[in-house]
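Cast an eye over this sequence plus tokens and walk me through the fold:

***
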Amino acid sequence: MPLNEENDFGEISISENVLKDLVFKSVEGYLKEQKVYNEKIQKDLQKSIKITINDDASVSISLKVPAKYGQNIVEFSKNIQKVIKDDLEKIAEVYVSNIDVSIENLVKPEELEEEYEEIEETEETEEETLENEESPESEKEDDEQKDKNE
């Protein structure tokens, strides 16, 4: 059941899939920031997110996430709830009535550390490649502009 709102211009409808994607992106960003993320976690997270649109047009969410070993699990879970609530209310203007977070397993930082180093190296290489690709074009444009001015 999509979320619907009527206004002077017509109707706005937000599907559960869109809300699920927003929740996923919010949690994904937080997990990456906390360095608790890899491909398996990504797939598990996508499968675990459940969205319910309540009769009062509020949204209930449940999801399963891993926590970082050694980190305060309750605080970690509260932060995930806050990120989801803030993002959904800001981006989709929906009222979030509750967010149930289930911690399914613990991830040791050293298990993911190597993956993050590889990801960061790949991102840096991609940025350098983009910069190198952009530079010659802008230099050509500058040279062409100089030729026109002369």
